[in-house]
Design brief:
- It is a single chain.
- The protein is mainly alpha-helical.
- About 45% of the residues lie in helices and about 5% in strands.
- Strand 1 and strand 2 form a beta hairpin.
- The chain is built from 5 helices and 4 strands.
- The chain has a domain of about 70 residues.
- The longest helix has 28 residues.
- GO terms for molecular function: calmodulin binding.
- This is ENKUR protein.
- Keywords: Cell projection, Cytoplasm, Cytoskeleton.
- It is found in: Cell projection, Cilium; Cytoplasm, Cytoskeleton.
Length: about 230
């Protein structure tokens, strides 16, 4: 009987040949073997110089003549001894440098960069606030004013009122007085907390003290306090 022949045999063979490249081989690739005549010769890889120009018709190649507008540079001999002598005679004398000697052996160092010479206080702008600091302060002040104006506008929209300074001071005093009372009670607790009630009472006092400290810091930090209706 005839053997089974799949219908997709040709398609599989075509796909196998399609994905195969020249470098995808079984075993070493088949490359051309170099010819024995192409061997490496001596001095073959050294750089070669351009050939020299030969004389044309027995005449030697002469350099081109300079143009008529060419003027050669004439080097004038200078008398450096006289020049240096005139520079010394007419120049200003060097000012003596100030030194500071701090040991008996005569060790000395320059006075100006040592920090002992008051050169900074003699400047014209000494003690003057820099312009960048002044500009920064003005910007901060302007931003604060804009922020306050925006807050006031929001307060007007939300119908909030500002806490008076007297009432704020009274609240702050009351909170500090309350904190002193609870702190006194906390300091009066026994050292040994061996019962559940003592531990709970101590934790309760600590929570109250933390809350009071937080409220006092918030009121002291913010001068303007707003109350919603």
């Amino acid at each position: 009987p005839l053997r089974y022949i799949p219908k997709l045999k040709e398609l599989v063979k075509y796909e196998a040949e399609k994905n195969k490249s020249q470098w995808k081989t079984m075993g070493p690739a088949k490359v051309a073997v170099p010819s024995p005549n192409d061997f490496l010769q001596k001095h073959s890889k050294e750089p070669k110089l351009a050939p020299k120009k030969k004389e044309q018709d027995g005449k030697r190649l002469l350099p081109l003549l300079p143009p008529r507008t060419y003027h050669p540079i004439i080097h004038i001999k200078k008398n450096f001894i006289t020049k240096n002598a005139l520079a010394v005679i007419t120049g200003e004398p060097k000012k003596p440098r100030h030194f500071c000697v701090d040991t008996r052996q005569g060790d000395k160092y320059l006075l100006e960069p040592s920090g002992l010479y008051p050169k900074y206080i003699k400047k014209k702008n000494y003690g003057v606030v820099p312009k960048c600091v002044t500009r920064r302060k003005e910007e901060m002040k302007r931003e604060e004013e804009e922020y306050q104006a925006s807050v006031l506008e929001q307060l007007k929209k939300k119908a909030m009122k500002t806490l008076p300074e007297e009432e704020r001071t009274n609240i702050l005093k009351a909170l500090k007085k309350k904190w002193e009372e609870i702190n006194h009670a906390y300091q009066s607790l026994p050292v040994l907390t061996d019962t559940t009630y003592k531990r709970m009472h101590k934790e309760e006092l600590e929570l109250k003290l933390k809350q009071l400290e937080h409220d006092i810091a918030a009121i002291e930090k913010h001068k303007n306090i707003y109350i919603a209706d």
